[in-house]
Hints:
Helix content of chain A: 40-55%
Shape of chain A: globular
Pfam families (chains A, B): AllG
Strand order of the largest sheet of chain A: 6-8-7-3-9
Oligomer: homodimer
Radius of gyration of chain A: 23 Å
Organism (chains A, B): Caldisericum exile (strain DSM 21853 / NBRC 104410 / AZM16c01)
Structural class of chain A: alpha+beta
InterPro entries (chains A, B): AllG-like (IPR009499), OXTCase_su_AllG_h-dom (IPR024033)
Protein name (chains A, B): DUF1116 domain-containing protein
Amino acid sequence: MSKVNELFKSELKVINIGLTAFADSLRATGYKVVHVDWSPPAFGEDVREALDKFNEIVISKKVDIEKANEEAFKRLVSARPKLVRMGKALDLIPGMKSNMLLHAGPPVTWDRMCGPMKGAVLGAILYEGWAENLEDAEKLAQSGKIEFSPCHHHQAVGPMAGVVSPSMPVFEIVNETYGNKAYTNMNEGLGKVLRMGAYSKEVIERLKWMESVLYPTLSRAIEYLGGIDLKNILAQALHMGDEGHNRNRAATSILFRQLAPAIVKTTSDTDVVERVLKFIDGNDHFFLNLSMATAKASLDAARNIEGSTMVVVMARNGTDFGIQVSGLGDEWFTAPAEVPPNALYFPGFTKEDANPDIGDSSITETAGWGGFAIAAAPAIVQFTGGTPQEAINKTKMMYEITIGENTTYQVPYLNFRGTPTGIDVKAVVEKGIPPFIDTGIAHKMPGIGQVGAGLVDAPMEVFKKALIAFVKKYS
Amino acid sequence: MSKVNELFKSELKVINIGLTAFADSLRATGYKVVHVDWSPPAFGEDVREALDKFNEIVISKKVDIEKANEEAFKRLVSARPKLVRMGKALDLIPGMKSNMLLHAGPPVTWDRMCGPMKGAVLGAILYEGWAENLEDAEKLAQSGKIEFSPCHHHQAVGPMAGVVSPSMPVFEIVNETYGNKAYTNMNEGLGKVLRMGAYSKEVIERLKWMESVLYPTLSRAIEYLGGIDLKNILAQALHMGDEGHNRNRAATSILFRQLAPAIVKTTSDTDVVERVLKFIDGNDHFFLNLSMATAKASLDAARNIEGSTMVVVMARNGTDFGIQVSGLGDEWFTAPAEVPPNALYFPGFTKEDANPDIGDSSITETAGWGGFAIAAAPAIVQFTGGTPQEAINKTKMMYEITIGENTTYQVPYLNFRGTPTGIDVKAVVEKGIPPFIDTGIAHKMPGIGQVGAGLVDAPMEVFKKALIAFVKKYS
């Protein structure tokens, strides 16, 4: 009895992949069909050509892409980011100016800024005292007197709107392996906060308190501790249900445990100590900005590796989604940012209220955690939507488009497998699998704040553009 | 074509359960066989008879066992344990005497005590100042002048040796739903500690510091906070990779976050505050004793439900393993304690050094977490041995022998399924599935301390004895 005969004599069980028509006609004749929704990457002529040229580069050995990616990956995973000190943005951040506001994502002008970013800019103007009221603030923002610049152009990252103004206190993180530095501001909490586009009196007052009380207190404690090992905290947190983007409860807890005794030793006013500790305790996302700066410090060491297709930045300004690639210098590849299709909204809000994807926080996915490590954080689905099984599948999928696994950051449930790390532009395009991001969602209007959290794929367009630029440069 | 014909025409795929002989002969003729190693519970005549009588009770409706178990389960899961205050054991623990030492597990006399329990008793005598040196301490222990009594006879629980002496500070936990109270001492940390049988100078000095500095500091903070909701902390911790027995890093972190601001407000000496915070931060098991008292306070409310087969205590004294059952009053059912067959030992130690299973900490499994919730804590296998998949399987198995699921304590990876809760003596015996415990391991000699952690099954014997006693009482 041949195998084929066997097949046709046994009951037919069909798994149909792709076009539904086959499944439909089989079902119509009474067969059981499991349908898997998948379509092969739809390549345009330009992408097909780019993939062909890519193979020519590989064959011609004009540049050793594999070796370049190995080097980029090695630099990324061997980074040792340490929080060393705090200071004012104007004093610490390279290229910061007294009339400059940093923002998230790729470059964007005032007229193209989305609602929450405009809101954050207005809030920052009020915070700096550059205007007395909202009307004047808006005039100033439009006037051209303020210089807008992406955080990423200044070794910095900011969540959501990512607006950093000159007086704002920032953390300085040093990558002890390679010496490069990264900067980020302090996390304000959830809801009505500047980074989500809110600018009301309470928002500005909180920022002022953070500058005058929280900053000097933390600053002294960090100095007293001789710095804080962020890599160690993040590695522990992934064993404790965090993924380092939208779930930071464990990392915030570990940071709190390290900071508290030092704060007690370096700040004598017990009311201040109590309020500072309660502020951090009251915000499970306090570690988020540090997770992002950990990612930034790790990835910056892997920039400008000749011939590498590894992504070193994914960032959103709420209008555009942009990436940068190690072998392609400082060029941005952008496409329109999308509203997360799957999300959980806070009571009173719906998808109609949501701004498209925004923030530098996708630097965590770029570095191999956040959405890429979501299988380590099953409880996150109560905040972002989805199920634990979907979370596991998402992480597994990301191994398809990454260069390696970071054994420092592990997914316990996948038997301590290292997280999928180092996005390969070519793999993304060729396999048609976009990087997966879990993200906070801001209201699309300025002045409101966060409305939910959700799951989103990076737009394929930016990876196609990057691949085309790559083969153009290296052919 | 009939179904049977279909079956025989298609390729034969066999799953063989039980006797290997069938699998072997099929394999010999070329078939693929998956063999599952399982054997039906081997009942002795007495157990078979007990199961028959049990069914007679059910049919005769002499007592409504199902309803009794529902009530016991309801009481267990509706408990709201809150940490309300601290005090000296002699002042707070019911029935505590000035010449009494409490210990873990079922009753045991000095001559039958295992090494680590003897070590802890000697340490406690030195700590109380009842003897000046080890020799005198041993004489006193043998003299009969000290009254030994199980923690469980005094609404108390203690990990490992579980020795509580009159001057020792203890936590008082109130079950706010039912008003009953539970007590436990403070956790000393890992390694050379009294509860593991160590009694050196550093051990006694640490206990003295805990009494004179840590206790009053924590006591003031707890009062300032108006108590601490332990149920809430444990529920969060299970979303953060703890299981509440051998992994308490998350719960300790959350407790730390709540305590720190209150300690700052209520203790003016910053050196003391710093040292206290560092002590708690330095011991990821600090919450263990509170997890145990949470379990004890929850289970005590479910005691003495007429007709209930639910286990309300599982406890080990390092010599005997004992259980108590809701419908069987204060009677202990005991069997020899076993050395955990699967364990990870600290460097320099092996299974040869291990004492048999010891401690009241299996109260956590009795209440539905610990080993029963190990699927929530995949990273624990790095401490106890095993793999994350085995951990998931263990939790799944425990649903077979439990009355219900506690929706407050969830396993995120099992799609937030409530933990398997309320061990049913009859199900354990009938299905031949023993309750699963993850546990610390003490050196078998007094004076040494912890040597590892591992996984162990409760001995079936105690459940058989309890079932026989149950049918005797209710027939």
